[in-house]
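Hey, resending since the last one bounced:
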Amino acid sequence: LGSTFAAIFGVLPNTSFSQNVGLVAMTKVVNRMALATGAVFLILCGLIPKLGALVSIMPQAVLGGAAVMMFSSIVVSGIQLVTKEPMTPRNLTILSVALGVGYGIGANSAVLAKAPQALQLIFGGSGIVPAAVVAIVLHVLLPKDDVVKE
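The structure tokens again:
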């Protein structure tokens, strides 16, 4: 709904970034005031060049270490989400094929070199979209597991 109103007024759509999941998992901070304080600090860094320059001298090793920890937390959160459901043969097939397609296209974007421009635009650059599409299609097409009640 928010993205629809944004488009009406010529503003970019709203997005949620998966880094937020990793940050919450890593820091355990979900307080709105703490998040708003961080947002104000980032705005100030953009408006005050000296403050932005001070932050930018952070060593790459520190920034890289924090990024590795954050993105690893995202992966672990995804694994926890997936494993909450029992791993039936159907679920295992959907997960395996989606991860394989996503990783394959993400690791080698040249796979789409001969595809139409529209497909390259939609699926190119990242394996996330193809993995999601494959998972949704398989979820719809594969026969449901028979539930055995004891």
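The mean pLDDT is 81.

Sorry for the duplicate.
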